[in-house]
Specification:
Layout lengths: L7 H12 L24 E3 L4 E4 L3 H12 L4 E4 L16 E2 L7 H11 L3 E2 L6 E3 L1 H15 L2 E3 L3 E8 L2 E9 L2 E6 L2 E4 L5 H6 L3 E2 L11 E2 L1 E5 L24 H14 L10 E6 L2 E5 L11 H25 L7 E5 L4 E2 L4 E2 L7 H6 L6 E5 L5 E2 L3 H6 L2 E2 L8 E4 L11 E3 L8 H7 L2 H20 L9 H10 L5
Parallel strand pairs: 1-10, 2-3, 2-11, 3-7, 11-24
Antiparallel strand pairs: 4-6, 5-6, 8-9, 9-10, 12-19, 13-18, 14-16, 14-17, 15-16, 20-23, 21-22
Helix pairs in contact: 2-4, 2-11, 11-12
Bound molecules: flavin-adenine dinucleotide (FAD).
Flavin-adenine dinucleotide binds next to helix 2, strand 4, strand 8, strand 18 and helix 11.
Length: about 475
């Protein structure tokens, strides 16, 4: 783990020292030649935002849109070429736990207006990823969010225990950005880790983590002919005739007939449109979300698996005739990332008790969903629901405020929680609700020169009402 924290003075003086060094003079800095000290550079510094949001997944877009609607000058950085995170770059297509007040309802209504949502259930439904992409861009533009795509947040710098400056890398080079309040919505907790916050990952400090999965879209000739194998096709049921698990078993029998096996024990087909389905077929185990080499190998392995399975199915003919991959995800789906330490940690106990919180930003109704952490477990139990009865529970605002560093909030997967709680609250309805709460609180803090923990949740709620996100 690399924890870096520089004072502002260090930052400036190292930048000045860097000005005397050219790139040509740089060289290996130790005898072995296995270490390189990067020369410091003078960076262009932007100081024009009240709130900076890092990562534009479901949590990040909600945080940025809400902060901007609450009156904050808001910047949003995203490493991919589109907004939406797992919704779009990850080709998810299925939404859980979405029936909540605020932006979730607005997104649902606006997807309906463009006929881009299947299933009347407001809590769980299928959406079209390309429509989601363009909708989120429209919403960010309307709100006045300044968005920079293809831009990775790569370093963070504190002053007196408070996060004040971050550095991004993009085709524009390295750029520095200052703001009074930042929101880490990178899913993997990149910003919190760069700023020096404590964090956990997976079941223990060093994993095992939940597996990665490469989603894909496929064009089909006749979705009705594939109905016995398609989950959540006009029903939300998991069990019984026509339920998810029945479809999974029928699909597995087809894979066997085609002479292939999926590495995910519950291979699933989701309906998207009459001629389009989403395929969730694989698991990649033991991969840490910050290991670029391992993620690259997993990406290529899983993309190859998707194509191998599709080609085998197409050879079966019948209902599979003409099936063709339309798109594989640009980003392999990462379930487990860093969980940044906050002023409250959501735990398994909260799920057992059905915890209620005075500063509740979301009530989670989605159960525990732990995918197998190894090939062996996948054979017997691809999904584990925690082996206890979960009751709907609250996520408090305190779990969204970093404990170790001032001026930093989290939203989405990387908030403060334990492994079991994360396996429940991580789904996208909760990510949006958390983003909204972080966005409004960050805006109020920045505009009144306070830190996020000095803003009462009642104040944030009043502001959400004022800007039309609460009745
Ligand atoms: C395979 C899979 C299946 C799932 N199934 C479902 C489901 O059916 N329904 C459901 O509701 N949820 C599901 N989930 C869970 C859900 O998708 C995620 O937990 C959710 O996307 C969390 O939202 P987020 O905004 O926190 O993270 P993400 O969606 O991961 O978004 C994080 C964003 O930050 C960006 N980013 C990361 N690092 C940086 C950086 N350093 N600089 C700039 N940008 C950065 C990423 O590119 C990304 O856009 C699934 C997840 C996976 C992986």
């Amino acid at each position: 783990m690399n924890r870096v924290s520089y004072s502002r003075r260090n930052f400036i003086s190292s930048a000045l020292a860097g000005s005397a060094v050219t790139h040509c003079q740089a060289q290996a800095s130790n005898e072995n030649g296995d270490r390189f000290d990067e020369p410091a550079q003078k960076l262009e510094l932007h100081d024009d935002a009240d709130v900076i949001v890092c990562g534009a997944g479901p949590a990040g877009i909600a945080a940025a849109i809400t902060a901007a609607r609450a009156g904050a000058r808001t910047r949003l950085f995203e490493v991919h070429g589109c907004l939406g995170g797992v919704w779009t770059a990850g080709l998810l297509t299925y939404i859980f736990d979405f029936d909540k007040p605020g932006l979730t309802r607005e997104i649902t209504r606006r997807l309906d207006e463009r006929d881009a949502r299947r299933n009347p259930n407001p809590s769980r439904f299928v959406y079209e990823p390309e429509e989601m992409k363009i909708l989120l861009e429209e919403m960010c533009v309307e709100a006045g969010v300044k968005t920079q795509l293809h831009t990775r947040v790569s370093a963070a710098f504190r002053e007196d225990g408070r996060l004040r400056t971050l550095v991004t890398e993009s085709k524009s080079g390295r750029q520095a950005w200052r703001a009074p309040v930042f929101i880490d919505a990178t899913g993997d907790g990149d910003l919190g880790a760069q700023a020096g916050c404590g964090w956990d990952v997976g079941q223990a400090k060093d994993c095992p983590c939940q597996p990665l999965t490469m989603n894909a879209l496929a064009v089909v000739r006749d979705v009705k002919a594939l109905a016995p194998f398609i989950s959540f096709n006009g029903t939300d049921e998991f069990n019984g005739p026509g339920g998810h698990l029945t479809c999974v078993e029928a699909f597995k029998a087809e894979l066997k007939r085609a002479g292939v096996e999926a590495s995910y024990g519950h291979p699933t087909i989701f309906p998207v449109r009459d001629d389009l389905v989403m395929l969730m077929l694989n698991h990649e185990y033991g991969i840490k979300p910050w290991d670029a080499a391992a993620i690259s190998e997993a990406t290529m392995r899983s993309r190859a698996e998707v194509f191998r399975i599709m080609r085998a199915l197409r050879k079966l003919g019948g209902p599979w005739e003409g099936i063709q991959i339309a798109s594989t995800a640009e980003q392999i789906g990462i379930r487990d990332g860093r969980r940044i330490h906050g002023r409250y940690q959501v735990t398994r106990d909260d799920l057992i008790k059905g915890a209620r919180q005075d500063d509740a930003v979301a009530r989670v109704t989605f159960g525990v969903d732990i995918h197998a952490d190894s090939k062996e477990t996948n054979k017997t139990k691809p999904i584990n629901n925690g082996d206890f009865k979960m009751r709907p529970y609250d996520i408090p605002l305190r779990a969204l405020i970093a404990k170790d560093v001032g001026g930093l909030m989290m939203a989405g997967r990387c908030i403060s929680g334990d492994f079991i709680a994360h396996a429940s609250y991580r789904v996208t309805g909760n990510a949006v609700a958390m983003g909204e709460a972080a966005g409004v609180t960050a805006a109020l803090a920045a505009l009144s020169k306070r830190l996020p923990h000095e803003v009462a949740w009642s104040e944030s709620l009043a502001k959400l009402t004022k800007i039309g996100l609460r009745a």
